[in-house]
Amino acid sequence: MSDLDTSRTGSGVVLPASTTAPPPTAELDLSDPSLYLNRELSWLEFNRRVLAQATDSNVPLLERLQFLAIFATNLDEFFMVRVAGLKRQVSAGVTRRTPDGRTPAELLTDIAQRLRPMLQSAQDCLHDQLLPLLARNGVLLRSIHELSDAQRAELDCYFEDEVFPVLTPLAVDPGHPFPYISNLSLSLAVILRDHKSGEGKFARVKVPTGVLSRFAPVSGGGGWIPLEELIEAHLDRLFPGMEIVSAYAFRVTRNADLDLEEEEADDLLMAIEQELRRRRFGAVVRLEVAERMSDRVLGLLQDELQVGDMDSYRIGGLLGLGDLSALAALDIPRLHWKPWSPVPHPRLDSGDEEPVDVFAEIERGDILVHHPYDSFEHTVARFVVAASEDPHVLAIKQTLYRTSGDSPIVHALIKAAERGKQVVALVELKARFDEQANIAWARKLEKAGVHVVYGLVGLKTHSKTSLVVRHEDEGIRRYAHIGTGNYHPKTAALYTDLGLMTCDPEIGADLTDLFNYLTGYARHDPYRALLVAPIALRDRIRRLIQREIELHCPERPGLIRLKLNALLDAQLIADLYRASRAGVRVDIVCRSICALRPGVLGVSDRIRVVSIVGRFLEHSRIMQFGPEEVWIGSGDWMPRNLDRRVEVFTPVRDPALRGELCGILDLHMADNVQGWSLMPDGSWIRRFPADGERPINSQVALMEQARSRTVHRR
Predict the structure, then answer these.
(1) Are 408 and 388 in contact (CB under 8 A)?
(2) Which of 370, 462, 481, 619 is catalytic?
(3) Going by C-beta distance under 8 Å and a sequence separation of 6 or more, which residues neighbour residue 431?
(4) SS3 content of the chain, % helix, strand, coil (to 5)
(5) Burial, 5: exposed, middle or buried (Cβ in 10 Å; 0-12, 13-18, 19+)?
(6) Which of 301, 364, 607, 617 could be 598's S-S partner, Cβ–Cβ 3.0 to 4.6 Å?
């Protein structure tokens, strides 16, 4: 299935070459490893699509630099979590094969082989494309050897005043053991020679990027030089009386995934704090070194850090490309996207009049919000703030998976508790890499009188739900927000997410039961309207797929459309294969990991998979089954979301709102500017407008739609 012809469709998609297809009724082993793509390799292909944005001349220059930084930070997390997990499996002797047929050891080899040319492409992008273009636009990343005497003198002063006082050279000899190298830290390996004895010596100097900028400013608007290069040029100040033979940059990545035995933890908060301290000392899973580093020095580092050749990467350029985000944030408007300001939702925008009564408007009809096109501040945040201020509100119940230091949601919950309302916040302490921030928020909420719950043992609470209980003339009414994204104002401006605001009695009753499940011992199965994982989400999805298979006929063609971040679950993929074989059309918008192979004749030839990678991170999740059933929610089709997380999907019952969601799916499937099509062999092909075809950029189209709603109101 890897042979591809070169014909192009109207959406710029390369079609698979024809092969002999088994008849739909033929027996087919849907567990055959050849029908599945590997999770980790699929993720690497997603990161390749991110890197492609850095090479795209249609993307503003500093945004290209930011995409390169995102590519690098994505890889850091991939090694800290995914590669670390595979290495633990190998150490434990695990040989169980993934659905695509690989053992952990085989997969580690495949990852290294696929990644090395990708890393070279990233360096080529930086040094051959971006840096020359940036220099033409006045953004210069320089070498110290290019500077004038006056500029070097200025940098000498900067080094003496700002850098030298925080440096700590660490000798390595029988009296000084090899130092601990912290995760993601940048260092210099320095080879010295004693002038008196002629003896060779080794030392490590940490580049203090945690307290100083990675890039040192050059005076007179002369740009920046990497901090490690400035330190290397002044090593004689750190080692007086010694000859500096050579110095090489290197960088270490450690296992940073929590290994938490929740069943044994009496106090989850304390257990996670202990694990966070241990994270600093995780095993090394990657060693990056300057390409010119001698084999002898590399061997010394490998021995001390217990890293082999497969986990060592020679980098022909700048190490730690994630630090480029500091330069990418420079305030040069012509090198960035045109600013986008999310617009107030038309249902909640009063213009210059009195503020809209949020609860009265929700009672009038459900409201669908789509960030970052609709303003988070004027919709979701306003909903919670209004609840905290409304004297008729009795209780607020909220899940918090990730949030921020300036979150209006958290401040509103604190104010509500101070006003005597019953406030419950489920703070998920196990939200990876946000654990420390969530611990801080949990303690602040507790001090304000909020009832804080830390989630369920063995499960992450990933659902995005808010419930407001209000006393009205007719009695108690429950208002809800159920979304696809975190209650985080910063990511709401960068991620595409959906939310439903409703006072539907069934949904309100379901959320009441759900919060009782999360905070107490109640169990509710089934729920009235919601799909909740791990209780019933998987089984209900399977039944909905089967329903489309059974209803499929010429008069009512079967249809399944999905928008997900990741599609990995082998059982559900097999169900989609069955649907395709039965004639059901399956369209999938999948941002990152996709283990399904589309376009395999006789298996998945009615399945199309598109990925959108653009200005905003596609994060919303939509499920459509048939022409009239649409859901939005928090979970991807991955085993962890279906079986080990609390996820919530809500039906969208209003026909007009369902039409909006179907329109979003239509746009993404038609995108021929930011869209990529998945091929049967696992490769992704960039989509381009065919001759005479109108370019369709789904994110730009959605911005224009949002803007036009505002103009129309005026």
Answers:
(1) no
(2) 462
(3) 401, 402, 438, 460
(4) 40, 25, 40
(5) exposed
(6) 607
CA dist., res. 568 & res. 82, Å (int):
15
DSSP H or E run through 476: strand 475-483
Q: How confident is the model at residue 579 (pLDDT cuts 50, 70, 90)?
A: very high
Tokens 């600093």 map to which residue?
A: 280
Q: How many CB atoms lie within 10 A of CB 267?
A: 10
Closest CA to 674 of 644, 648, 702: 702
Q: Residue 123 and residue 319: Cα distance in Å, rounded? A: 9
Which of 409, 544, 398 is CA-nearest to residue 482?
398
Tokens of 585: 């059309």
357 is written with which tokens?
A: 């009564």
Query: Three-state SS for 640?
Result: helix
Cβ-in-10-Å burial (0-12, 13-18, 19+) of 388 comes to buried
Residue in the block written with tokens 């710029």: 12
Q: What integer pLDDT is reported at residue 22 of this predicted model? A: 58
Cβ neighbors of 241 (< 8 A, separation 6 or more) are 195
Mean pLDDT of 159-165: 96
Give the mean model confidence (pLDDT) for residues 452-456. 80
The span from the CA of 206 to the CA of 185, in Å, is: 7
Distance, CA of 225 to CA of 573 (rounded, Å): 49
User: Has 462 been annotated as catalytic?
Assistant: yes
| Residues near 208 by beta carbon (within 8 Å), at least 6 away in sequence | 163, 166, 167, 227
**489 secondary structure, DSSP code:** T
Nearest CA-CA partner of 598 in 205, 10, 14: 14
Summarised one tens digit per residue, pLDDT across range 110-136 is 999 999 999 999 999 999 999 999 999
Determine if residue 328 is left, alpha or beta; phi over 0 gives left, psi from -120 to 50 gives alpha, anything else beta.
alpha
Q: Which residue has the tokens 């990708």?
A: 118
Sequence-distant (≥ 6) Cβ neighbours of residue 14 within 8 angstroms: 4, 5, 6, 7, 8, 677, 679, 685
How do 464-472 and 460-461 pair as beta strands? unpaired
Q: What is the pLDDT of residues 295-318, one digit of tens each?
A: 999 999 999 999 999 999 999 999
Task: Give CA torsion, residues 666, 670, 673, 677, to 10 deg.
Answer: 110
Would you list the DSSP string of 64-89? HHHHHHHHHHHHHHIIIIIIHHHHHH
| Residues 192 and 200: beta-carbon distance below 8 Å | yes
Backbone angles phi, psi at 377, to 5 degrees: -60, -40
| Residue whose C-alpha is closest to residue 86's, from 101, 73, 103 | 103
Find the mean pLDDT for residues 530-552.
97
Distance CA 88, CA 23 (A): 43
Q: What are the residues facing 358 on neighbouring strands?
A: none
Dihedral pair phi/psi, residue 678, rounded to 5°: -85, 130
CA dihedral 57, 58, 63, 67 (to 10 degrees): -70
Confidence (pTM): 0.91
Distance CA 132, CA 57 (A): 13
